[in-house]
Write a structure and sequence with these properties.
4-stranded antiparallel β-sheet, globular, binds adenosine-5'-triphosphate, ATP-binding, P-loop_NTPase, amino-acid transport
Length: 234
């Protein structure tokens, strides 16, 4: 693998006395997609929170472009180029679609992704640009959330269950954007419950079970049965 853009090394963390992750390691190759799978409670969201500095972790446990970043606050990580699309979207309710995107762009780093390019990626949002973001369907709100991440022009996006609560046909529309996003040079870690979908999408796979990595490697190395077994901790 080329030098990873983001690495997690032997990361252990938790909530107070409760340990949720035990020595987790992974490498995200530049311009690649890593699929992160695991049952409810396996520790996927906890890993994202730890990468983003929302949970305790040591400086050397997370490196970005070879540099330890485990001591940096979340805001600083966004400036460096690591952002998350959270489960559950979290848009500004009183703002329109366009205002949500423009505000994120103003706080971003500048680069290839503009509000106009997000409208090209998701034309349905261009049609609804003046509507309140929260008046949109769940899938469209998810597109706005992805658009907000893109206009920050990050190098890495952490996608936390972007298909949660969406109808299957809408999930297809949202997922159809990921290859283009990746093709623009952005690397991604994608948390997804649908094992088939994540196998088709990702270059690398990591499976967590009860806070430990139980499977890790190139996506083509694993059958659906192997991945499903790891998912259920068999
Ligand atoms: N705020 C919290 N306080 C205490 N324990 C928590 C907290 N958030 C998560 N946990 C626990 O940490 C473990 C890992 O949870 P986490 O949310 O990371 O799992 P997950 O793989 O993202 O699952 P899901 O798919 O349900 O989001 C679980 O045992 C969970 O109960």
């Amino acid at each position: 693998m080329a030098d990873p853009i983001l690495s997690v090394r032997d990361l252990s963390t938790g909530y107070g006395d409760f340990q949720a992750l035990f020595g987790v390691s992974l490498d995200l190759a530049p311009q690649s997609i890593l699929g992160l799978v695991g049952a409810n409670g396996a520790g996927k969201s906890t890993l994202f929170k730890a990468i983003l500095g929302l949970l305790p972790r040591a400086r050397e446990m997370v490196t970005f472009q070879g540099r330890p970043i485990g001591d940096l606050p979340t805001r600083r990580l966004a400036q460096l180029g690591i952002v998350m699309v959270p489960e559950g979207r979290r848009l500004f309710r009183s703002l329109s679609v366009e205002e949500n995107l423009t505000l994120a762009a103003e706080h971003g780093r500048g680069g290839a992704w503009s509000v106009a390019r997000v409208f090209e990626l998701f034309p349905v949002l261009a049609d609804k640009r003046r509507q309140s973001a929260t008046s949109l369907s769940g899938g469209q709100q998810q597109m706005v959330a992805i658009g907000r991440a893109l206009v920050a022009n990050p190098d890495v996006i952490l996608f936390d269950e972007i298909s949660l609560g969406l109808a299957p046909i809408v999930v297809n529309d949202v997922y159809a954007a990921l290859p283009e996003i990746n093709g623009s040079g952005i690397s991604a870690i994608v948390v997804e419950q649908d094992v088939d979908r994540v196998r088709r999408l990702a270059h690398q796979l990591v499976c967590l079970n009860e806070g430990r990595v139980v499977l890790s490697g190139p996506a083509e190395d694993f059958t659906k049965a192997q991945l499903t077994a790891a998912y259920f901790g068999e």
